[in-house]
């Protein structure tokens, strides 16, 4: 029972740290955020921060890892053959993940401070999809695998670029209805 209390306390502390990091990252570049101001905002001591993280960048990396794990776990629930046909459902869940936790993940995708970490997220999503592809098509040629990787990379970079460029509330409907239809049936200039 004592472990559960400690785990909850650690979770609350990490949540406060990540929420403060998110808030500060929405105001300024990651390189300008100090441990002192993050700790003041999170209402923790610096020693508590250093129990969990080496520095701000380590904290941001852990923040990114959690988001990446969460998003890849959404994709991993689906069979490969369902990834395109159910893409609206999948991306709806991904948008919900970004909006969850009081919008804490939004600066991660919107801020230029997280550029390399965002690229890691994209790569992880692509790798998750490619693993599913290779399991469902074990006899695919090297050329087929590469062609598929290029197509998946194009789509994921497009999705993430769209997430960065638009308000999430506007995207929810487009990602859940319009975009999947366009991917399945071709793009058209007519609504």
Explain this structure to me?
The chain has 191 residues and is mainly α. The chain has a domain at 56-185. Helices cover 79% and strands 0% of the residues. The protein has helices at 2-25, 35-42, 46-52, 56-76, 82-85, 87-103, 106-110, 115-136, 142-165, 168-185. The longest helix has 24 residues, at 2-25. The radius of gyration is 19 Å and the shape is elongated. The chain starts with a helix and ends in a 6-residue tail after the last helix.
Order of helices and strands: HHHHHHHHHH
Query: Number of DSSP helices?
Result: 10
| Amino- and carboxy-terminal Cα gap | 57 Å
Helical content stands at over 70%
Radius of gyration: 19 Å
**Structural class, please?**
mainly alpha
Indicate the overall shape. elongated
Low-confidence stretches: none
Q: What is the typical, i.e. mean, pLDDT? A: 84
- Number of separate strands: 0
Beta-strand proportion: under 5%
Task: Characterize the largest beta sheet: strand count, sense, and whether it forms a barrel.
Answer: none
Topology:
Blueprint: H1 2-25, H2 35-42, H3 46-52, H4 56-76, H5 82-85, H6 87-103, H7 106-110, H8 115-136, H9 142-165, H10 168-185
Helix pairs in contact: 1-2, 4-6, 4-8, 6-10, 8-9
Write out key terms for the chains shown.
191 residues, mainly alpha, elongated
Question: Short description, anyone?
Answer:
This protein is mainly alpha-helical and 191 residues long. It has helices at residues 2-25, 35-42, 46-52, 56-76, 82-85, 87-103, 106-110, 115-136, 142-165, 168-185. The relative contact order is 0.11.
């Amino acid at each position: 029972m004592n472990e559960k209390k400690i785990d909850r306390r650690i979770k609350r502390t990490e949540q406060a740290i990540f929420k403060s990091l998110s808030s500060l990252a929405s105001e300024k570049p990651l390189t300008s955020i100090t441990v002192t101001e993050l700790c003041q905002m999170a209402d923790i001591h610096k020693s508590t921060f250093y129990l969990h993280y080496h520095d701000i960048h380590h904290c941001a990396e852990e923040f990114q890892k959690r988001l990446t794990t969460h998003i890849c776990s959404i994709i991993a629930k689906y069979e490969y053959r369902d990834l395109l046909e159910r893409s609206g459902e999948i991306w709806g869940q991904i948008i919900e993940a970004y909006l969850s936790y009081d919008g804490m993940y939004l600066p991660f995708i919107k801020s230029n401070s997280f550029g390399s970490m965002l690229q890691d997220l994209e790569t992880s999503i692509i790798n998750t999809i490619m693993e599913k592809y290779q399991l469902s098509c074990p006899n695919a040629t090297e050329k087929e695998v590469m062609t598929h990787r290029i197509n998946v990379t194009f789509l994921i970079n497009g999705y993430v670029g769209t997430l960065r460029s638009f308000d999430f509330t506007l995207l929810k409907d487009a990602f859940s209805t319009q975009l999947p239809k366009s991917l399945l049936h071709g793009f058209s200039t007519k609504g």
